[in-house]
Design brief:
The protein is mainly alpha-helical and 196 residues long. The protein has 9 helices and no strands.
């Protein structure tokens, strides 16, 4: 979304236009969720952060100095709220990352393909879990739907805009390296078992 469009929608929503509010929610919900989920909160806590970020926007919508940067404002608000809840609970709720991939979409693949897809997804999530927390957060935010712009990502993660691209490239390379390492060791193990 162009900054001018974001500012126009923010002003219209502040004036009580429900269509403008709906457009803001549709555009930025993915960003808010990805920031929230990046802190590994439980489902209830993540939903609270999501709702609180939108509530804060509703409370402050008419007073936001730069409505063209409303996405960054939401990302920052979600990040602050997620940190507040993470600190107050002082715990992490374990989540089965494979479950995050299974959102109940029926597919027309064969059972064999479904097994292969599940194994591939599990391997990807195992490799993803080996990345640093910073890389995991960055990659989670970058895959939000719709994709956030770099200003929103920077606000969500508290990092300079100019470092997002290079950091993303390093994180993806680390992920590739882990996947290649695991694939090589799995192939070697499989070959060794066949020799026996």
């Amino acid at each position: 979304m162009e900054p001018e469009e974001a500012a126009r929608l923010a002003r219209a929503a502040a004036d009580g236009d429900p269509a403008a509010w709906k457009a803001l929610v549709e555009r930025f919900s993915g960003l808010v969720w990805s920031v929230t989920r990046g802190y590994r909160l439980g489902s209830a806590d993540a939903a609270d952060v999501f709702q609180t970020a939108w509530l804060r926007l509703a409370e402050h919508l008419g007073r936001i100095e730069h409505p063209e940067r409303i996405g960054a404002w939401l990302a920052t608000t979600a990040r602050h709220e997620a940190l507040r809840i993470a600190r107050s609970t002082a715990r992490l709720v374990p989540v089965d990352d494979v479950t995050l991939l299974a959102f109940g979409q029926a597919d027309e693949n064969s059972p064999e393909q479904a097994v292969l897809d599940t194994e591939r997804a599990a391997m990807l999530w195992r490799a993803f879990a080996e990345l640093s927390a910073r890389c995991q957060q960055l990659l989670r935010v970058l895959i939000a739907t719709p994709p956030p712009n770099y200003a929103e990502v920077a606000a969500a993660l508290g990092m300079p805009v100019g470092s997002i691209g290079p950091t993303r490239a390093r994180c993806l390379q680390q992920l590739r390296n882990v996947l290649v390492r695991d694939d090589v060791s799995e192939s070697a193990s499989s070959a060794h078992n066949k020799e026996k």
